[in-house]
Amino acid sequence: MQTLPPPAEMRRAFLSGDASYDGVFFTGVRTTGIFCKPSCTARKPRPENVEFFATPRQALSSGYRPCKRCRPLEADGRPPAWVETLVARIEADPGLRLKAGDLRAAGVDPARARRWFLKHHGMTFQAWCRARRLAQAFRSIQEGSSVTSVAMDSGFESESGFRSAFARLFGGTPKQAASGEPILLDWAPSPVGPLVLGATEDGLCLLEFGDRRMLEGKFDALAARLGAPLAPGRNRWIEAARAQLAEYFRGERRDFELPLVVRGTAFQEKVWRALLEIPYGETWSYRDVATRIGTPSATRAVGTANGRNRLAIIIPCHRVVNADGKLGGYGGGLWRKQHLLDLERSHRPG
User: Fold this and answer.
1) What fold does the segment set 7-74 form as a domain?
2) What is the pLDDT of residues 63-95, one digit of tens each?
3) For the whole model, what pTM was predicted?
4) CATH class of the domain at 266-347
5) In the chain, where does the domain assigned CATH 1.10.10.10 lie?
6) Phi-psi bin for 23: left (phi > 0), alpha (psi -120 to 50), beta?
7) What sign does the CA torsion over 40, 42, 48, 51 have?
8) What are 226-244's pLDDT values in tens digits?
9) 3-state SS assignment for residue 184
10) Which of 3, 34, 182, 347 has the fewest Cβ atoms surrounding its Cβ within 10 A?
């Protein structure tokens, strides 16, 4: 479960219109029945008329409508400026070690950094930095660099400390890892909130909504299924996916051109292949999918396989609805399912 900042901190951020908290929490105004982003420019209500939510889904489930001014359902997923600055510093110098004092000197509350990275990357800021260093070290070792030189270049004080940290992340020694590779994880902005992308050198293996419950469990299941560790990073397939997703949300792309790493049971993989056949802008029922794969009575099993899809949007499980045309279920939230279907219907060929 996502942990909200302290109430006093959220009240201060909301009353001051602090955009750096957009996506961290949402505010519901009891007197209007509307929920907003912290940066909303509408007139601020009395504090006693405000309640806070971790996600849009929670606000919607509590009966609130999205604000037409700040459009909380259409957040572009961009991280706050202070996060972009921190990430840029680490990317420029992966060996850099930013401690709590360094964060405060840069005007960043360490507790806020911890919460933000836990929410969006599933690990604290310090753990993210360490994993980022180790991911870079992994690449260097694969390219033939010595363990000793990589350990020093990665900012570790000793080779033994490096080997220990490396083993915890990658499940083996640096020498053993030279013949393997991790699953790289990164994020992408979108009109339906941040998306988490995962890829190996063979292709894209994960696309999930950043606020999904049990996301950490999905990470663990993916690592077990592919037999590879997870690490922050980006490769050509993640870059390609980010570009193609941006085109999709602009209505400029109907089909994705990406190699997919799809691992599941034989039945799940059969369902997922069928989902790829559903035309852009159209919907099939669960029975339609079951019939397509030759098991017309297996609608419930199709629904379960649909929910286990690890490549949202790209394997379009959002195009599967109930036989009566109603939306049915969707792990990312029905508002997202409706948004995706509306987007495709508005851009499908005449």
Assistant:
1) DNA Methylphosphotriester Repair Domain (3.40.10)
2) 788 888 888 876 455 667 788 888 888 777 766
3) 0.60
4) mainly alpha
5) 266-347
6) left
7) negative
8) 888 777 778 899 999 999 9
9) strand
10) 3
